[in-house]
Amino acid sequence: MNAEEFEALVVEELDRLPDDMVDGLDNVIFVVEDRPEDGSLDLLGLYDGFALTERDRYGMGELPDRIIVYREPHLAQTETTEQLRDEVHTTLVHEIAHFYGIDDAQLHELGWA
């Protein structure tokens, strides 16, 4: 799947998330990149920013936080479009949870990590 098709799939999955999950996102952008900087295929996504629980240190004029979804790792770990959609959905929920201050241990308990 090329970059444009993958980005469209990410947008579709983002649109399918519950409104109450995405309505609270403030100063956050979604980015699709081919791979993490280290070139690995292990990392599916990344939240780069200050969690809502840490926004007391957040000042005026901050650059937007980023939720990055990596295309090539997703493609390497899935075989069908349906599996890809499921994995992108899980990655989006996982990274949005980090925005809300939910750590990996809590995500494991909830089944999202």
Helix content: 40-55%
Please, what is the oligomeric state?
single chain
Tell me the fraction of residues in β-strands, as a range.
5-15%
Order of helices and strands: HHEEEHHH
Q: Which consecutive residue ranges, at least 5 long each, have pLDDT under 50?
A: none
Q: How many DSSP H or I helices?
A: 5
Largest sheet geometry = 3 strands, mixed
* Mean pLDDT reading: 90
Structural class: alpha+beta
Strand order of the largest sheet: 1-3-2
CA-CA gap between termini: 25 Å
Query: Would you report the number of β strands?
Result: 3
Rg of Cα set:
14 Å
Principal-axis shape:
globular
Can you give a write-up of this model?
InterPro entries: Zincin_1, Zincin_1_sf. It comes from Candidatus Microbacterium stercoravium. This is Metallopeptidase family protein. Pfam families: Zincin_1 (PF06262). This protein is an alpha+beta fold and 113 residues long. The chain is 45% helix and 14% strand. It has helices at 3-16, 19-22, 71-77, 81-99, 104-110, and strands spanning 28-33, 45-48, 65-70. It has a three-stranded mixed beta sheet. α1 (3-16) packs across α4 (81-99). The radius of gyration is 14 Å and the shape is globular. The mean pLDDT is 90.
